Amino acid sequence: MSAGRLRAARRIAVKDLLVERRSRVLVNQVLPFSGLVMVVFAFALGTGGVLERAAPGLMWLAVLFSTLITVQRSFAIETADGALESLRVAGIDPVALFLGKAAALAVELIALITVLLGLAVVLYGAEPRAEGVVLLVTTAISATCGLAALGTIYGGLAAGGPGRETLLPLLILPVAAPVLIGATRGVEAALGTDRTAVSEGWPWVGLLTVFAVAVGVSGALAFGTLIED
Amino acid sequence: MDGSGGTPAGDATSGAAAVEMNGVIALLGGFPALSGLDLTVAHGEVVLVAGPNGAGKTTLLNVCGGLVPVARGSAHVLGVDLTGDRAALRHRVGLLGHRNGLYGDLTVSENLTFWSDLVGATPEETARSVEAAGLAGRLADVKVTALSAGQRRRTALAVLLIRRAELWLLDEPHAGLDPDGRGELDALIRLAATSGVTVMLASHDLDRSRDLADREITVVGGAVVEAA
């Protein structure tokens, strides 16, 4: 990976985060939406230990739904005034563009997941245990990388097309199933849900890592073609 | 070029025409949007592309920018053969369509700094471009969403200056601008042209654009029918 490419990717990521800091869409819209989803799950499943057992899966469902909005927002800023087209026309390295967009998305998702983990503790009674902290953090990071790479691929693919708001969930949700399953199992093991041992979570982290690397490499290679008209 | 952010890097091709097209056919969805178009544009020339809606003006600009492939015929832009690796051309041309390609939540300065960093322009080059576009001072810290249409257009052209684009392809650059905005835009295009930038502008605002252009061509049915 050349230094120029990494520098361009970093610049694109910083720009995306600056746009978010200015617009505060993540803070004012995505986070409240995610919180509401968590609360609605709590209303639907009620008490009796069901919530505590289902907490990892519900949290990752909320993350997945929020990812869809975050990805849409990430590419809306590129398409609103034709910025993506300008970058494309100017011959900006598509690999750098992919890496930069995915990195910014990953930072935003990590912030989101941190808040949702806190909400899972408060609303669902999920209790992190000391021996599971490393697994919890590793699961969150590897799942985030996979979702960010996946979201960037499909966000780019849908960016120029008609009906992109409805197309994006149809594209992302089926392919994100391995992340949902792996991250849920990983967090279950980290929290000890149903007396799961921490060691049972690591194979799922392996799956998440393989997924993130495969999707990341594929995305970097294909992004230039995907964003062409 | 004074205030342009640098001299266009077109020395390698300065002897040849900036645009040389012979019998170019370009297809859009199977339809021949350009049908045997012949065109030669010299370096540093400002050419007005006139013609009715659907005549192929925008397609011509997109072909020149390497965005639409040439299906048949020969086409060279800035010395790059468009029937080969069109991507090699992209960092040398600037295409400005109906949208400005800016980030509305960022300030003028932040938008231009973003592009400067991406293309490796020096702070001095960036400052000269900002000055040339009349965006220095108070305007630099204004969010793009708070700018007038003319100021946004000038910011977009400042990006082309920062990118040191050798060929400017402007599609209806005066659209949506008030008389003051049009005047400011024209001044910037003239400045770029005097520095050696080649400009092709498609416009319906013929009176205004004729003042800017060295030459006018009329495109009808995907071919040049008249050149003056």
In short:
By secondary structure, chain A is mostly helical.
What does this structure look like?
The complex is a heterodimer of chains A (229) and B (228). With 229 residues, chain A is mainly α. Chain A has one domain. Chain A has 9 helices and no strands. By secondary structure, chain B is α/β, with parallel strands linked by helices. Chain B has a domain at 11-102 and 165-227: P-loop containing nucleotide triphosphate hydrolases (Rossmann fold). Chain B is built from 6 helices and 10 strands, in the order E-E-E-H-E-E-E-H-H-H-E-H-E-H-E-E. Chain B has helices at residues 57-64, 108-119, 123-132, 149-162, 179-194, 206-212, and strands at residues 19-28, 31-41, 46-50, 72-77, 80-81, 93-96, 167-171, 198-202, 215-220, 223-227. In chain B, the strands form 2 sheets. Chain B has a 6-stranded mixed sheet with strand order 6-7-8-3-9-10, with helices on both faces. In chain B, helix 2 (108-119) runs parallel beside helix 4 (149-162), helix 3 packs antiparallel against helix 4 (149-162) and helix 4 runs parallel beside helix 5. Chain B is globular. In chain B, 53% of the residues are buried. At the A-B interface, helix 1 and helix 4 of A face strand 6 and helix 2 of B.
Could you list some keywords that capture this structure?
heterodimer; A: 229 residues; mainly alpha; 9 helices; globular; B: 228 residues; alpha/beta; Rossmann fold; six-stranded mixed beta sheet; four-stranded antiparallel beta sheet; disordered N terminus
